[in-house]
Design a protein that fits this description.
about 375 residues, alpha+beta, 10-stranded mixed sheet, 16 strands
Amino acid sequence: MKLLQPNARPIHCAVFKHEPADFVVTEIMPIEQTGTGEHLWLYLSKINLNTTYVARLLADWAGVLVRDVGYSGLKDRHAITHQWFSVRLPSQTPPAVDFATFAAAHLTDNESLTVTKSIWHNRKLNRGTHKQNAFGIRLRAVKGERDAIERTLTHIAQHGVVNYFGKQRFGRDANNIAKAQAFFDKLLTSNKPYRPNKKFAERDGLMISVARSVLFNAMLTQRVADGTWDTAIAGDVFNLDGTGSIFADSITDDIRLRVRACDIHPTAPLYGIGTRRDCDTAQQCYDTVLDRAELATFRHGLAHIQAKLSYRPLRLMVQDLTWCDDGDDLLINFCLPKGSFATVVLDALVENLISNHHDATDDA
């Protein structure tokens, strides 16, 4: 899937994820645990382990169903990641063998897991509970003009990047798109209403997310092509920066000023049923994209399952962005809100990102 970028990228090529320490993800959680309750929260530091595999290990360790294990977001496998999990233990008595020891017997030589902290809480950790992710990234063997790299990073820090759903959402070689197409094709051959099956909830959720992401990226790509992804146009719905708040308004000098100041951002629909709030030029732009024949299955499928309409900003602000050279390498640190992708920040900077690893997960 080709995603347009609004500007030339100053790094011609760089090596990414040469080793796990080149990509460090730290989950930022706004929860203060109670210290009591039947849910044991564990803060884990892990290397070369994806989130769902660790969740299954926790279920096996505790002798519970996987649905009794909670986590907030998926993290990349080929990385060093720090995140919270919860396990429901009604007896409030953990197994005799500690989890790190139990897990060690199931890990390969290049995988590791450490329990950094554990505490009881009265609630399960649900998806989307965390606020942000902090990233520490090393790009190796960077090829590019250093002054241009400096200018681009300064611009990103001030003005953000295009808020695409990252390539991880679509799987290796974008295979998840074909899987989602088959999933919705099958659903649309039935007149029966869609009823989620708990057994396949994770798979179905991914297929639904892929469909909405394909549609959103297509609409955003059109705004990039039009040069309006970071500019207010008639009929836009706006997102207040750093919040989930959206509103529609006429295009006034004040609105234009707020968009330029990155206080508010234009949005596009996350497709679903509900009353569209975008109108005029914005709606015409999006409807032209949504009417494309190759997107019809996703559009009809999401309506069939009654996915709920929402809006996502077209622009992603990159918080606390810092960088420095280390020989031929570039070290970059920043924070992103949940549901965002570190790779879209790198895509705004690097033309050819070379990696031997591919994570079919979210930086969410």
